[in-house]
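Lab notebook: predicted structure, single chain.

Context: the supervisor wants predicted structures on file for every construct in the current expression panel, including those that have not yet been purified. This is the next one on the list. No modifications to the sequence; it matches the entry in the shared construct table.
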Amino acid sequence: MIANISHTEQVKPLIEYNERKVEKGEAERIYYTGFDENADKNTVISHFALHTRDSKRKDKNMHISLNFPIDDNSKLSNDFLKEISFDYLTKLGFPETHPYIIYRHFDAFQQHIHIVCPKIIEGKKVLQDSNLYLRSQKITRELEVKYDLVQVNNLKNSIKKIPEEIFIKDKIEDTLDKRKKFSYAVDYIVSNYHPVSLNEFNEQLKLVGLELITNSYVDKDNNEKIGFKYKIAGSNDLPINSSTLYSNPGHKKLDKVFKNNKKFRQRRENEIKDFIHDKIFNRYHKITYEQFSKELEKIDLEINYTYKNGIVAAYRIFDKRENLFYKPSGIDRSLSFGNIKDKFSTKVERNYKYHNATLLYVLDKKYKELYPNSSKENNAQHYVMFMARNGMIPDVYNGKLRFNNYLNKNPSDNDYTANVSIALKNLDFNEISNLVHSKNYKSQVFQYQKELTNEQNEKTPEKVLSESLLKGIDKIIDLFEIKQKNKVPGKSKKQNL
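Prediction complete. Output recorded below exactly as produced.
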């Protein structure tokens, strides 16, 4: 559930807007706290104006819309909407007797309600609006749990599944029904996708069975205009003017939509660029085409390779969230195939500098969690043996201690972690050497990690042990990076990894 809040001085435009929707059959009034539930709009306006008469604030009235995910449609009876609205307003800080009016709108497939209420509680006392939007967001998350609604956080950055009721495949004879279904379909695309051009918008309209056609005309002032019409894709069906649809998705509205979507597109392109550079090319010195595609699936991307004489010559990125193809060089020149082709090989070569440093950091956190009274300073031997049992082999170089993961058979100097501040005189290298050079070191690492995580799985055969541990380590690194990304800046609270 998403709440949108706006403020205004005059209540009259808010009531008139919603009442016009009621007259057109695009909304209904489902609740009013006045003396008469069926009062006309002038009575409602007078009631609210009387309530705020002592205040000279420019924002003394509120217009709130509560928007629900499509999967919640079956639960949204009028009584349910009244109850959740009352709960929302009460948690926001309004008293139970506060006047408000609720309208349920039908001009979009996604169910939503509009609430109009004075911001003035009594006399000149006003609702506390400090951090109002953050409080509203917190309240909606709580209400999602309380009423068993779809949690909006889980819908972000996800692949959309087009509802069957939205898709238009057959000709619609009834004009009013056609207007309604076309309005729902177009609004669904505008609300859930982020096109930045007419070509992209038309491509996404195909998801709901529609297409956009344009025509030029001259208005009464002899100015050339562009008109938009919608029709069933690939049919000879009579098109319907954009101005006929509920939200009027014509040239003016779509220009505004495209402009707003450019910010979202920039964030998405930055996400793709950063993921490829930081999470793929920093992790691998060399990578196969197959592995490259597999990695990008983590952020809902597909790779389409173009072959020339049996050799990859180019690639395109398909965004499953937006149902669009991106040209890599359009995202960033560094992603063009000419700039990244040297990264590909027939065999994966890991970047152990990145791998080792991240894993050491994660294990260091785990050590502090397991042994809060011990540290590498006061119990160096125990710390190094813990690392060794987890597959991090210690190495001394220029009088300093560093680590390398045992899966990296022939490490170069660049593969090792940075130096770790441990006094070498406090270490018993015989014990360490006996562990890491034992014939069953792999099995010991696996057994130790199995006991550490209290896993009860059967022992993995040694021939696939290396591969299994590698996947496990990658999983730890991914979880760590997610934790770091979600870490709240400015807080030093201990992270329980």
